[in-house]
Write a structure and sequence with these properties.
Structural class of chain A: alpha+beta
Strand order of the largest sheet of chain A: 1-3-4-5-9-8-7-6
Helix content of chain A: 25-40%
Oligomer: heterotrimer
Chains: A alpha+beta (about 200), B mainly alpha (about 375), C alpha/beta (about 250)
Strand order of the largest sheet of chain B: 1-3-2
Number of strands of chain B: 3
Structural class of chain B: mainly alpha
Shape of chain A: globular
Largest sheet of chain A: 8 strands, antiparallel
Distance between the termini of chain B: 78 Å
Order of helices and strands of chain B: HHHEEEHHHHHHHHHHHHHHH
Number of helices of chain A: 4
Low-confidence stretches of chain A: 1-18
Chain lengths: ~200, ~375, ~250
Amino acid sequence: MKTLRILPLILMLSLCACMGRQAQWAPAGSQAVLSDDQLDMEWPQGWMTLRPAEKDAVAVKQGLLLMGTRDGFGLQNMRLHKRALDGEFTHTQKKLSAEMLPQEVAEVILDDLRANPEVVDLNVVDHRPSTVAGVPGFRLTVTYRGKSGLLRQSALYGCTHKGMLVLLSFDAPKRHYFAYDLATFETMKDSLHWKS
Amino acid sequence: MRRPLHFLLACTLVFPGCSTPPLGSGQNSALDEDEQRLWASVLEEERRLDHSGLLETDPAVNEYVNSVLQKLSPSQLRPRELSIQVKVLKNPLLNAFAFPNGNIYVHTGMLARIESEAQLATLLGHELTHATHRHTIQELRGVRRTSAALATFQAITLPFGLFGAAATALGAVGYMGAVSGHSRSKEREADAVGLALMAKAGYSPQEAPRLFEKLQDDLSLRKVNEPFFFGSHPRVQERIDSYRALIADEYPAQTGEVGAEHYYEIMTPLIVDNTEADLAIGRIAIAQHDLELVLSRQPVNARAHFLLGEFFRQRKEPGDVERSESEYYRAIDADPQLAAPHRTLGYSLLKRGETQIGKTELRKYLELSPHAPDRSYVEQALKEPQ
Amino acid sequence: MLHQTGKYVLIAMLLTLALQSRAWAEFHGHPDLAVKAGKITRISILPTQIQMYEIGAGGSLEKMDDWAQTANGNIRQALINEFAKREQLTVAEFSEESLPTDVRSNYDETLLLYEAVSNAILTHAFKWQNASPAAQALFFPEKAREFRYSLGDAVAQLPSGSEALLLIRGFDQRSSGGRKALGVVTTIIGAALGVVAIPRGGGNLFTAALVDAKTGDILWFSHSLKPHDLRNLGEAQQLAVEFMIDLPALGQVP
């Protein structure tokens, strides 16, 4: 039991040690993405958003700016990522470059998904060109089974612009939850724009 | 000099005091209560693996690996004692593991490294012994008494992304054998008994250490720490040393079937598919190595030429655009009906301003693959002005 | 990548270790519960999903299928006994063994989705007393006020012949050296995030959900952290009563 009692203390201390912005939950609409992000978007009303802590290495690596949910992340989550084009992916060792076509970028994203240990039985349902924040990009829809075995579906928009990779994703159980909030996601995607 | 192996065999096969006699030894091999629970939990792990969408479906490969395993099976083993079977997982990581019920899973990444049927028999004989000698339950009984148990049971996520085959699908039992390996004494026992099985089946024992020497050489191409067969470099060296000692003691001059040609004949399509997986996760050096090896044996393998083109496209060194295009052309020459090289060649030509030829290639791609998932991209590219 | 709740959530939830569990069941009801409950005259108890583990002296965790079989049999019998006291209600048989293949996959998916839904409900719809501020932030007041969760209308294809389905899910970890209920919340956290954290003394959590058999809406959801040993029919009966106290009258127009 001692270990269990000490664990939160250690965690709390480590959180205090790395000051800087902590992870923040807030109702949608009450926080901007980030002042220096150049990207803005309208999150659906009634949703909760979580902004990762400033020193969250995983979030920084993935370029995760903000994520939101209404019922819980396992039931639906939307995420906005923006990171440098030459950054590393979590699972594949492939790299992006500025001269890549949108479909080539999408292929690398798919390879990163295929290499994700938590993703099984991945199927690409749809893969087509799209426009993201006014920039030519791609739209992917995939189904897969996650850790629990539940069949999930994801829609993902992406583009490269100004040396950055921008990704906007929506992930939910395929049954009921994906279709339920897909229109909300599309509306949110349509609201994504560059500030400058 | 023969004492170590004889002693080992005496302990594991004959000694009546052993609480868990090997299956197939003719002794009472009824499963204990905890072992029955283990087997039940294994079914769930196997179900997840079998439904991961990553089982190799090529009947030639499946029949071949299972025929090799059948040759190794101890004659006294009753079918109801163990379900002896090999399943191949489409996964480029180096791995192979046996469940306690006798089902062995081998990754395509491992099969791509093997050079002969005798080496495959070495691997399968080793894994089969883990099952017949009930190593998993013995390890679990030991680990249950230590605090290490927590780490073992909770370590359900591998530190390196598997290619789709989820580590999550591989539960605690598979994890134990697959990633960390068994204890040294169990591994040595699997070496000794497995080697005896493959030698008895007529394979050359001299091939056994070569498998592990090859694995050790190839690790340098990988450049990453990945969970893999026997856990780590030092443990591969242990296998090499162990097999060399066993051969010196027991089979110094014994030769037998090697079966390199037949192995490659069956496995080449699998090896090519495996390089595609390696390219997807960005391990281009090993993909290049394997593709060049395939092409040295089969110079007109269209898919291998196409994937070598993909390798050059990914590598991006000076001159790689030209190299990739020439590989795409070779792929098309080898198999004009293969759609993918027309697409990649088309885009490459478009990027270089060769619009007319580029579009011709893209049209050819759509003609060959009318239901291509990326059709809308190609149609968009075809509509763009010159 | 797609289904990661993020380590911030994990950290936040781990900070709830200090949380003290309530010793009675807590529940939430769908906004339409009162209206719909009156129309429910037949109910199917889906095969209960109680998992049991033995925690060894060294901290190892072993799944005990024989214990679970007894526990599942007991809780099912206890629920049938309780429902039998309600004159307006009939309990319909539901056998997973007799399901045709296509319906079987629907049934499996229903259980998997219920796992995700119940984890989300536990994480966001209940305000855990004495939790740290980081953990309190996981409480979504809107979800507690307007309790709407669903398993989707695909449940209508399950051959239940009932107006409602009752789903029971939970786990019980028992140390070999004796029963202790400390560390329960660690286990809940583990369940919610798919991370198995094993408290040394063992933990347990039982959930119950009443689901509209046509729409899949969760009409009522309850959970208990009481350390009932469901291998004992008497204790299973206690848990059934605990759940039933909060379950509105079914088959009776209010």
